[in-house]
Specification:
Blueprint lengths: L2 E5 L4 H12 L3 E6 L18 E4 L5 H11 L3 E4 L6 H6 L1 H22 L4 E7 L22 H20 L2 E7 L2 E2 L8 H13 L6 E3 L5 E2 L2 E2 H11 L8 E3 L5 E2 H11 L4 E4 L6 E4 L5 E5 L17 H7 L7 H25 L1
Parallel strand pairs: 1-2, 1-4, 2-3, 4-5, 5-6, 6-11, 7-10, 8-15
Antiparallel strand pairs: 9-12, 13-14, 14-15
Length: 344
């Protein structure tokens, strides 16, 4: 039985990955930060099947202890300060976790069990001001946020440990991937939650930033399978994980509203643009410049040909299904909120 250690296990990707590994018969260990109230996040439903270890990415001693307890054959580093907007507000904390934290985890592995296979969650945000279309493993990086810069350090230190110490260390350059488990601070979940609330009559409109931002969106469940496949290869390497399709934020909004029977009509331009419910003329989408980034990433589009060919990776959930799954989930959650509120 293989042992796996997952940092960031309570998040979106961590929970789907834990489910996948449990299905494959792994003994799964997850790192949690100690809080006054235990928060299992997205793994509450499988908490009895996972061994939790208290540790912190900024504390090397705790990570060494986690490696000694888990004796992990595979380590998946998914822990991060992953909200791009917050990285401008907390650049030092972002660097401590997303950059130095990767080095701490690699050192812990090298100290305790250097033969372990290591996966680093890199990000398409490292491409930032894109130098070519689409982006591949060979595209030059140009990050446009403290988050992207910190993640780029994590990416390169993983490569450096692979080449310096002959460690099995991979980076997955994952493009935007969402799911029903995505946090509401992310624009995709903010949209689907708002669509549910507007449809059910408990919210009037949603405020968003750059409607013309283009992203390559896939489903987290597909992407964690790619992580696992990377660590099953004979040799470690880095891979772009993406769909090779790009959509605007506006298209995401339209798809979400269409699923609940609302047709959006756009009026105005730039920060004055609004989305109108075509049926009754009410404003349901507003643009707020507060949600624009200080340095914008206009378009991200990944070419996953290498992963498709070498990993035999197959995507199962297309864009429209991703959006409708998220909307359906939020419709259920908001309906339950309303039901509970009415009982009080």
């Amino acid at each position: 039985m293989k042992h796996a250690l997952i940092t960031g296990i309570t998040g979106q990707d961590g929970s789907y990955l834990a489910e996948l590994l449990l299905e494959k018969g792994y003994e799964v260990y997850g790192i949690m930060r100690r809080k006054s109230v235990v928060d299992y996040g997205n793994v509450g439903h499988i908490k009895d099947k996972v061994h939790f270890i208290y540790a912190d990415m900024t504390d090397l001693v705790s990570l060494v202890n986690a490696m000694r307890i888990s004796q992990a054959d595979e380590v998946y580093n998914l822990a991060a300060q992953s909200f791009v907007a917050t990285s401008w507000e907390q650049p030092i904390a972002t660097a401590d976790i997303d950059a130095i934290g990767v080095t701490n985890m690699l050192e812990a592995i090298r100290t305790v069990k250097p033969e372990s296979h290591f996966y680093q969650a890199s990000t398409s945000e490292m491409f930032g001001l894109v130098q070519e279309m689409p982006q591949t493993e060979k595209t030059p990086f140009y990050p446009r946020s403290p988050y992207g810069v910190a993640k780029l350090y994590g990416h390169w230190i993983t490569k450096n440990y692979r080449e310096s110490y002959d460690m099995f260390a991979c980076s997955g350059i994952l493009f935007n991937h969402e799911s029903e488990r995505r946090g509401k601070e992310f624009v995709t979940r903010k949209i689907t939650d708002a669509v549910a609330r507007i449809k059910l009559g408990v919210q009037d409109y949603v405020e968003l930033g750059n409607m013309d931002s283009k992203r390559d969106w896939g489903h987290s469940k597909d992407y964690v399978r790619a992580m696992w496949l990377m660590l099953q290869q004979e040799k470690p390497d880095d891979y772009v994980i993406a769909t090779n399709e790009t959509r605007t934020v506006r298209e995401f909004v339209e798809t979400a509203f269409t699923h609940v029977g609302i047709k959006v009509e756009w009026r105005g331009y730039g920060v004055d643009e609004v989305g109108i419910n075509k049926e009754n003329g009410s404003i349901i989408v507003k643009v707020n410049k507060q949600f624009f980034r200080p340095a914008e990433v206009d378009v991200l589009l990944g070419n996953p040909k290498k992963a498709d060919t070498e990993l035999k990776w197959v995507r199962e959930i297309p864009f429209r299904e991703l959006v409708t799954r998220m909307v359906d989930n939020d419709m259920s959650l908001v309906a339950e909120e309303i039901k509970i509120a009415n009982l009080k």
